[in-house]
Specification:
Number of helices: 20
Strand order of the largest sheet: 8-11-7-12
Distance between the termini: 48 Å
CATH superfamily of one domain: Periplasmic binding protein-like II
Shape: globular
Oligomer: single chain
Mean pLDDT: 89
CATH class of one domain: Alpha Beta
Strand content: 5-15%
CATH architecture of one domain: 3-Layer(aba) Sandwich
Largest sheet: 4 strands, mixed
Helix content: 40-55%
Low-confidence stretches: 1-26, 28-32
CATH topology of one domain: D-Maltodextrin-Binding Protein, domain 2
Length: about 500
């Protein structure tokens, strides 16, 4: 049970996802006609679980409405949506006039704001969202703001990403490798060589995804300033509000030189820059020792959640860097109110309950006690005997890190009680970008962005996976970037950042 919960929460830390509507306008309208005395709010949420039958969903909906009728004079229509088509379906629904009042950004925050699909909730938060403000805090809300206006609310969950090595515990123990001494990518070199020497047919390092073996999560205190971390164009490093050229920096060249050495020594998958195979799949084959990625959970929980994915081999996790928070980490998984809503106040009131009311959020996640889940004596929950997530009438448990306030949810059976405190501490103590709240509007350099991204796709995967020699290719890469308009983008970003910073004074 623990594995399922943590796994999906891990996956939702860094994803851009999609939605398929269930329910929809006809259900919302019929409910409105039936209960005209209450405000009607449609809540569209992504689920990783099965879409429940309508009668089973209605039961959960009614249990929630027993609370909302009394507390906020509102009835809620639940719209659980399959994750695969999320962004596309929500966008089409909003454009087509379908009733959706509250929805998730799922990586599309900037797009929803720029296309006027998001309601300006600045005043609503003050009037009806005090619980959200108290729970999330002004600093996190700033990540969902643009030009002084707030358009979203970050999900309250473990957010701060921490670089980790995910590795085969059995091999480490057999060879007497002390993983506790590892604190950086650089510390892995001798270990990887030792593994290769003992297991010559094994490739020590698997890519976490196409064109990435862990470099992008190990640059240090880097804010990618609205860009994807896997193809950034102009970044901030440290505490200075100065847009920097990452690809001309010492840290970039040093990481490229490191992985080039790994590549030449046979320590890295040769086609890591182009393979479509993912880390868990490769690890489950038994032909790899480790991979490097970033997660938001303690080492023990991270390892446990990945165990089933990585096959029958015992899996360990070791932190090799510090957590860091930037704007995209927070607004990428945020809640928004539709600009088309006819009940903005009611929508905000219900959204507030998902951050403050334990009964509401647990109904949304777990469904009906006794039918969909059972409470254990230790305060944890589990599925009824003989049931699991695929057979109970309702559950959104696999969406645990995407709805409202994660810290109000009942813990699943097997969850380490100390984990929650660790996760809260990471959120509170993680280094935060000085540009928290800044989003870059790239319209003025749209043409240059297209050309630069093409250059990045040509060079970057090979450089950070070791197949391209940094001694010759980094300079070629930088020159090609500049020829494509790279410096113009950096200049535009700096100008926008300066304007934003001036407005913060």
């Amino acid at each position: 049970m623990k594995n399922k919960k943590v796994l999906v929460c891990l996956l939702t830390a860094a994803m851009t996802l999609g939605l398929t509507a269930c329910g929809g306008e006809s259900k919302s309208q019929s409910k409105k006609e039936k209960n005209e005395g209450y405000d009607q709010v449609t809540y569209a949420y992504a689920t990783f679980n099965n879409i429940p039958a309508e009668e089973d969903l209605d039961t959960v909906e009614e249990a929630i409405n027993e609370i909302t009728r009394k507390k906020i004079h509102t009835e809620v229509t639940l719209m659980p949506i399959a994750i695969a088509d999320y962004s596309n379906k929500v966008s089409l629904a909003l454009q087509g006039g379908e009733k959706i009042d509250v929805y998730q950004s799922m990586g599309d925050f900037n797009n929803y704001v720029s296309t006027d699909m998001a309601y300006d909730i600045t005043d609503l938060l003050k009037e009806e969202g005090e619980g959200i403000v108290d729970t999330v805090g002004e600093d996190w809300l700033a990540a969902c703001s643009k030009e002084g206006h707030t358009y979203g609310v970050p999900t309250m969950k473990p957010v701060a990403l921490t670089p980790m090595v995910i590795y085969r515990e059995d091999i480490a123990e057999e060879m007497g490798i002390d993983m506790s001494a590892v604190s950086s990518m650089e510390d892995m070199t001798d270990i990887l060589k030792k593994v290769k020497e003992s297991y010559p047919n094994m490739t020590p390092v698997a890519p976490v995804q196409t064109g990435e073996i862990g470099v992008s999560v190990n640059y240090g205190e880097i804010d990618f300033l609205t860009d994807d971390r896997y193809s950034p164009v102009g970044v901030l490093e440290g505490d200075q509000l100065e847009v920097e050229d990452l690809y001309s920096s010492d840290v970039f060249r040093e990481k490229c030189e490191l992985v080039r050495g790994w590549y030449e020594d046979g320590l890295v998958m040769k086609d890591a820059a182009t393979t479509t195979s993912m880390a868990a799949e490769l690890m489950s084959s038994g032909n790899y020792f480790c991979y490097i990625a970033a997660y938001s959970y303690p080492e023990e929980d991270t390892a446990a959640s990945l165990q089933q994915q990585c096959g029958t081999y015992p899996i360990g996790a070791k932190i090799i860097g510090d957590a860091y928070l930037s704007t995209a980490d927070l607004n990428g998984l945020s809640w928004m109110i539709a600009s088309t809503t006819d009940v903005p106040e009611a929508a905000m009131k219900f959204l507030d309950l998902t951050y403050t009311d334990k009964d509401v959020i647990n109904l949304l996640i777990y469904g009906i006690e006794g039918r969909d889940y059972v409470m254990n004596d230790d305060g944890t929950v589990s599925y009824p005997e003989g049931e699991d997530a695929s057979t109970v009438p309702y559950t959104a448990q696999l969406s645990c890190g995407t709805l409202g306030n994660f810290f109000l949810m009942h813990p699943m059976e097997g969850t380490n009680p100390d984990s929650l405190e660790w996760e809260k501490e990471q959120n509170e103590t993680a280094k935060t970008s000085p540009a928290m709240g800044f989003t870059f509007d790239s319209d003025s350099v749209k043409t240059q962005y297209t050309a630069v991204k093409n250059v990045i796709s040509q060079y970057l995967p090979g450089l950070i996976c070791g197949s391209l020699d940094p001694d010759t290719e980094v300079d070629k890469f930088v020159q090609a970037l500049n020829d494509a308009g790279y410096q113009e983008i950096l200049k535009a970003k700096q100008e926008h950042l300066d304007t934003w910073a001036e407005g913060q004074k």
